[in-house]
Amino acid sequence: MGLGEALKERGRRLWAWFFPPRVPLPGEVERILRALYPCLDLSAVSFHLGLPHFARWTGGVAITIPALLAPRRTRVYVSPRHWDVATAEGIGTLAHEAYHALQVQESGWGIGPLRPFLVLYFACGAANGFRYEGHPLEVDAYRLVGRRRSPFESALWRADVERIERESARFATPSCELRFWRKLAASTPLVRRLVDSRPPADAEPGRLWLLALVGFLPISLWLLLWGLAASVVWLARLLVESVGAAAAGLLWGAGLLLSSFEVILAPGRAGR
How many whole angstroms separate alpha carbon 65 and alpha carbon 57? Predict the structure, then answer.
């Protein structure tokens, strides 16, 4: 391999490091996810083989995040070591991340850094001490799928794909019942004690008025704080990935140029 081809290969690898390639779901797995989440717009969810650059140091298995610029698109990234579309465990990982995509959809679409799901995920994470275990949005997902003891995996642990597809409708979840403002209030200091486990429609009117009066300022400040945090993270990611894309493009372009010179100067060697 000549120097030009080596540079082009490095450019391709750098691009893949910043932007893991999109992979199609097998038809049976897509049908399983559609049966599990009949209201999820799966056409707005893309699956990628590999974790993004900012998530590799966490040691995670997979991550779901809204796309940088597309207002409706959600991207699911899965570590190659855990991409498995033939077992309940592997499909459960994809289904767990698809549950987060449903949460993104139900929390509302956004543009740029103004993503309700990101703000809510940061706010709930802060209330949980920035720990993964016990994170409210993760707990909600694990109640259905994502771990050996979750209902989906418990029932289908040793099943083949055909059986999983047949029985996935038993676990159909039309909605994750994500109420953005209620979740945000439940994560807000000084307010969370006023939020009980019942839906707002079942709560006493007096409690709702008390929550509105006492919680307006703290919830607004909490929303502003984590909205700013989400914006900073979004802008930092945009900057890093812009630099990465430019570097990958320069490497590939330099390799293409050198390859052209190599063909001109040594046509016999280039053909070997």
Answer: 16
Check: CB of residue 258 under 8 Å from CB of residue 1.
Answer: no
* CA gap 53, 73 in Å, rounded: 19
CB 20: neighbour CB atoms within 10 A? 22
Over the stretch 189-243, which tens digit does the pLDDT of each residue have? 888 777 654 455 555 555 555 666 667 888 899 999 999 999 999 999 999 999 9
Instruction: Measure Cα distances from 79 to 18, 59, 161, 199 in Å.
Output: 14, 9, 21, 37
Residue 234's Cβ-side half-sphere holds a number of Cα atoms within 13 Å equal to 22
